[in-house]
Amino acid sequence: MKFLTIGALLIGTVSGLAADHIIQGARIIPAKDTSALQRIGAHHQKYPDRRTVTIRPSKNDADDVSTDFLWGIKQANHGGRLLLQKGQTYVIGKKLDLSFLHNIEVQLEGEIKFTDDVKYWQANHFYYDFQKSITFWVWGGQDIKIFGKGTLNGNGQQWYNDFAGQEILDPDNTFYRPILFLTDNATRVSVEGITQLNSPCWTNFFVRTNDISFDNVFINAYSTNASALPKNTDGFDSLNVNGLTVTNTRVDIGDDCFSPKPNTTNIFVQNLWCNNTHGVSMGSIGQYSGVKDIIENAYIENVTLLNGQNGARLKAWAGQDVGYGRINNITYRNIRIENTDNPVVLDQCYFDVNATECALYPSQVNVTNIVFDNIYGTSSGAEGKVVVDLTCSPNAVCSDVHLSQINITSPAGSPAEIICDGIHGDIGVSCQSSSSSS
Ligand SMILES: *[C@@H]1O[C@H](CO)[C@@H](O)[C@H](O)[C@H]1NC(C)=O
Ligand SMILES: *[C@@H]1O[C@H](CO)[C@@H](O)[C@H](O)[C@H]1NC(C)=O
Ligand SMILES: *[C@@H]1O[C@H](CO)[C@@H](O)[C@H](O)[C@H]1NC(C)=O
Ligand SMILES: *[C@@H]1O[C@H](CO)[C@@H](O)[C@H](O)[C@H]1NC(C)=O
Ligand SMILES: *[C@@H]1O[C@H](CO)[C@@H](O)[C@H](O)[C@H]1NC(C)=O
Ligand SMILES: *[C@@H]1O[C@H](CO)[C@@H](O)[C@H](O)[C@H]1NC(C)=O
Ligand SMILES: *[C@@H]1O[C@H](CO)[C@@H](O)[C@H](O)[C@H]1NC(C)=O
Ligand SMILES: *[C@@H]1O[C@H](CO)[C@@H](O)[C@H](O)[C@H]1NC(C)=O
Ligand SMILES: *[C@@H]1O[C@H](CO)[C@@H](O)[C@H](O)[C@H]1NC(C)=O
């Protein structure tokens, strides 16, 4: 009798706990329940079954499920998976601190959509001094995998409308716009298969992150309002990152396609496609007085760059009161560039420092061991016959810059011109100084 009572009590307590534990509309399915996992679309060819958490989707665009999402992330943390189901939308209307992750998978088959409550997000966000960046959420920790065929939707239209006519570089600008995906203090992060749509500002920014990879991702930003286009929606930006890999990815946005910023090392890019972008750009670095910035060991291969402002670019600051550092060991190989204003650029007199000034205050960012190999296609003709423009500061370190198999034509006429100013040593192709260019 006594035993029975205790047994009943225990059972009552455990099931009571479990009921409290699961929030409304959520489920937790054990890894071994293969058929249930199959039914909800969580059985994946590549990723072995795990304890899988689902949460309720949003009923409409105002139905904020950020509390459910955070609960789901916590339940899936330490070896599980959060599944966001196909055909469902999950609206996030509150900022989220996801800095505590450790061995988690997020399978995104549906859509995560941020609210466009500009007023809320401008008062509630995570802020980074670097270029006055803000974000909806911060992902941090280790062993984080995000995969699926779903969409991360920044819902940027309202932001584009409201920002129209303003400039991010305007020192008086206080209209900050959130970054769609940001990692900070993270190690081993992979993102695969998803679409990233209409970020209000940069699409991806990685800070203090080691070993992050993107594979088979599509990044797109567009506006339905011709007088308010997306701005500064860069594909990839990084700061203090070691190990950055982007493969098999397509980016169609009106700003940098791939642009590692200060202290990014060990970069690998392969099979990247960029349309309408400002190119694949190392830097700019060396902007801030007294600060040392490095970009080193980058291998960029098989990139297609269409309809862009720039193609393959390196940029380091010069002038008074700037920083120092190096851009070293960067290879661009097998790059197809079409209809692009500045197909190949090396600018060690950034930003717009004229020749006199650049000689007087040369860049303190050393540019060394740069390879451009098999770069072909067409310019837009915006720079006349110039298709490659390499401008180093006189009196700065700029050496071991090697070009081979360059075949870029200009609609402005032939032969196309390669400008080389201030580079030490032979660059491997014939070139001329800007002063003698036609
Ligand atoms: C970075 O994350 C680790 C845990 O992964 C934590 O111990 C450390 O405090 C974090 N560092 C910062 C600066 O937040
Ligand atoms: C388009 O953007 C402009 C500039 O912000 C704005 O004045 C206008 O109301 C927007 N149009 C629509 C239909 O939202
Ligand atoms: C180069 O990248 C494109 C995608 O932009 C891809 O279709 C093609 O197969 C890649 N080429 C090689 C040799 O991998
Ligand atoms: C690339 O962008 C142009 C606009 O500049 C657009 O017309 C074209 O459809 C895009 N290409 C693809 C394959 O999406
Ligand atoms: C880059 O790393 C150096 C240390 O090597 C550090 O002093 C500097 O502040 C970093 N730059 C930025 C912009 O964080
Ligand atoms: C240059 O960078 C590549 C990675 O892109 C790396 O494999 C190679 O070891 C680096 N070279 C040197 C001399 O460090
Ligand atoms: C730049 O080159 C100079 C001259 O070789 C060297 O003394 C300096 O250490 C280099 N700077 C960096 C950050 O590598
Ligand atoms: C170069 O820039 C400096 C500083 O901005 C300016 O004072 C100077 O007039 C410029 N020189 C030429 C030739 O444009
Ligand atoms: C350069 O490209 C053009 C256009 O694709 C091609 O006709 C020409 O043969 C190429 N030249 C060389 C030297 O590869």
UniProtKB/TrEMBL annotation:
It holds the Pfam family Glyco_hydro_28. PANTHER family: EXOPOLYGALACTURONASE B-RELATED, PTHR31736. It is found in: Secreted. It comes from the Eukaryota. It catalyses: [(1->4)-alpha-D-galacturonosyl](n) + H2O = alpha-D-galacturonate + [(1->4)-alpha-D-galacturonosyl](n-1). Belongs to the glycosyl hydrolase 28 family. Its main location: secreted. The keyword Metal-binding does not apply. The lineage of its organism: Eukaryota, Fungi, Dikarya, Ascomycota, Pezizomycotina. Specific in hydrolyzing the terminal glycosidic bond of polygalacturonic acid and oligogalacturonates. Residues 1-19 form the signal peptide. GO terms for biological process: carbohydrate metabolic process; cell wall organization. This is galacturonan 1,4-alpha-galacturonidase. One of its GO terms (molecular function) is galacturan 1,4-alpha-galacturonidase activity.
